[in-house]
Amino acid sequence: MSALSAILAGSLILAAVVYDLARLVTARESRLPPLARIRGRRAALETAETWLVGLRLHDRIDAATYRTRMHSLAAGERTSRRT
Known about the structure:
Order of helices and strands: HHHH
Helix content: 55-70%
Radius of gyration: 20 Å
Number of helices: 4
Largest sheet: none
């Protein structure tokens, strides 16, 4: 009986590892950890602001778009991460 429970526990752990690896490899998975969702709305806004600053520093968005998105973040609205 204990062997059966050990096999069941091992297979559940293996399934979780495979699921996690597949989720990290897929193209739709965000490269940022989902901690912002855990820590709350303020942390999500801070993460979005950091992301936006990175886009601007690497010249992926222009100054007007940056200003508009930062204004919406200051108002408490989260913006999409599309460039």
